Amino acid sequence: MRRTVTGAALAAALASPLSAADSSGRYAAGYPASLECRAVSAAEPGSETLFAIAAFSEGWLAAHAKLTPGVFDLTPWQSIEYVVAQLRAYCDSRPEDRLLNALDQLTAFLEPDALAEGGTPVTVSNGQQVIMVHPETLERIRQKLVERGFSPADNDDPVAGLRAFQRDAGVTESGLPDQATLQRLFSP
Predict the structure, then answer these.
(1) Residue 123 main-chain phi, psi, to 5 deg
(2) Of the candidates 74, 108, 151, 178, which lies 20 to 30 Å from 68 by C-alpha distance?
């Protein structure tokens, strides 16, 4: 009988919405989430503080993707260095704000371009180097190249279009969808 009551209580608890927040929607946020933005801006490259911020940010974005219906990956091409640079830019202009608020803003910024589906990563090669990307990201790269007038000659191989875009944008001409290229390509 005790097992039945315990099982019924557990089933009832799991059927109701789970929340880690109090009745006002607030929740406890420890280090580093509670850091003021001024500490994010002041964190030295390679420091334990910056490492903690980067690790927390990766976990935050992964948890958000896991808990948001229709989101497979919030950062399909963005590296953690890109994420931290965006957080620092936000924090530089709002030093009294908190890291948690900066992450909320970054998440809202990234969400419209999040991948909805996974897939087997595909390779893009320039003959010397290889970069793996999600198929949906590769399709978005092709679309952006066309929108910007750098239509690849061979729609299956974006290397020529990427080289032309890189030349025009003043980034290293590798023909690969690297961080610097994608940041420029996807920026408004």
Answers:
(1) -100, 145
(2) 178
SS3 annotation, the chain: CHHHHHHHHHHHHHHCCCCCCCCCCCCCCCCCCCCEHHHHHHCCCCCHHHHHHHHHHHHHHHHHHHHCCCCCECCCCCCHHHHHHHHHHHHHHCCCCEHHHHHHHHHHHHHHHCECCCCCCEEEECCCCEEEECHHHHHHHHHHHHHCCCCCCECCECHHHHHHHHHHHCCCCCCCCCHHHHHHHHCC
List average pLDDT for each run of 10 residues in the chain, which is 188 residues long. 42 42 64 89 94 94 93 91 94 95 94 89 90 91 90 72 93 93 88
- Of 113, 136, 156, at which residue does a domain stop? 113
Q: Which domain holds residue 42?
A: 28-113
pTM of the model: 0.73
Name the token pair of 62. Answer: 């992964």
As a whole number of angstroms, the distance between CA 85 and CA 157 comes to 30
